[in-house]
Amino acid sequence: MDNNNNIYPVFDKMLSRADxxxxxxxxxxxxxxxxxxxxxxxxxxxxxxxxxxQRGILCRxxxxxxxxxxxxxxxxxSEADRIENIRRIAEVAKLxxxxxxxxxxxFISPLRSMRSMAADIxxxxxxxxxxxxxxxxxxxxxxxxxxxxxxxxxxxKDFTGIxxxxxxxxxxxxxxxxxxxxLQQSVATILEMILPKINxxx
Length: 202
Description:
Layout: H1 17-24, E1 29-34, H2 41-54, E2 59-63, H3 64-68, H4 79-98, E3 102-106, H5 112-122, E4 127-132, H6 136-142, H7 147-152, E5 174-176, H8 183-198
Parallel strand pairs: 1-3, 1-4, 2-3, 4-5
């Protein structure tokens, strides 16, 4: 008896995004946090990930710790490397989103062109840009690592907000100033916006 006859015969058709989303009972979406170092991007993303998990929503958080030490560990901080860093992040994020996973990215991504590139790769309909607009004075006050102070002394080159530009989004989906909003308020505001995008009609 040929056991191969029992194998599903259609090998040339990969399962679609719709198939994955139907399995999970959710829609994939990209939440892209941008803002200065110390603005609260990662803190909000981590709290949002936990809130989504509690609601039974599968999500994946991408940030500097799990990207710079892995897929992008060969990149530095030159402008070309920072662009490539964002390009790779976007390509990885697209794979997650196309699998129906809610994907959170917390990166400074200082230039509009970088974020536009990411949106083009992932798809504009799936890309939700959240600008964490906390003022630089507050970001510096929070800076326990002393990075801003070192940048002001010229010890760190091309530091965003000091010796390198940050281009604020012109039309973000949402703007959050964590010097005015609590963490709970920030997360609640994002949830109100994204849950309708994530939840599939029953």
